[in-house]
Amino acid sequence: MFPELAEGPEQPDEAAEERRGAAERFRNIAGFLADLAVAASARLSSPHNRIHTGVTVIRRKRPEAVAGSDAAARALDELQNGFKDGPCLTALRTGAPLLVPDLSCEHRWAAYVKAAAEKGVSSILAVPLDLGGEAEAVLNLYSGRSNGLSSDDVSTVKAFTAHAAGSLRLVLRITQLNDARSDLASAMQSRTVIDMAVGAIMAENRCSRDTALTILTRASSTRNAKLRDVAASVIASISGEKEVVTYFDG
Hints:
Oligomer: single chain
Distance between the termini: 8 Å
Largest sheet: 5 strands, antiparallel
Mean pLDDT: 75
Number of helices: 7
Number of strands: 7
């Protein structure tokens, strides 16, 4: 007789857990970028020339406004992303800073320029962050004044973003290392549970490891459940933790 398999507790949705984990990691990075946007805005703004600063990153191959010095900056980034073109997205694609000192004299991106001008934007500076291939991001600065952003500001922002990019690369790498460590721990835990279940089946049925694994795999297929989850049910049923409700035989 094969070991009795208990209906174990409902297993968590691993895909949903992974999505939640990814969302949490992204929120942490977005928080870092929000601090960057606020600091850049404070550095370049003056009493008569407030600079709104946003950060756009590429997620799932699409640009997304993830941080801003204020709500206006986020809205301006989202406006440009909606047109799928503009100075900030051009800078992101080319990897080079792009300054538009006077939007009224700009003939590129006509539809976007018209919409931005209607929102009160007169000059724009976009500076990509060099993240070493870890991700793609661009710092977007908006002024309501013509020539509110200058070539001098380009140098200032480039130096500013170079320092910030180094910190962000470190954050991204730490995140990736933590993800890899979590994945490895999960894989090792799953392997341990499966090995314990196989050992229990071998002892119960006095069979070889290959036969025991075949029994476990067949149960997994029959239940349309993950091998690890069925293995956990085997361990629970043998330990008497759960009421036995299902039998498998060969």
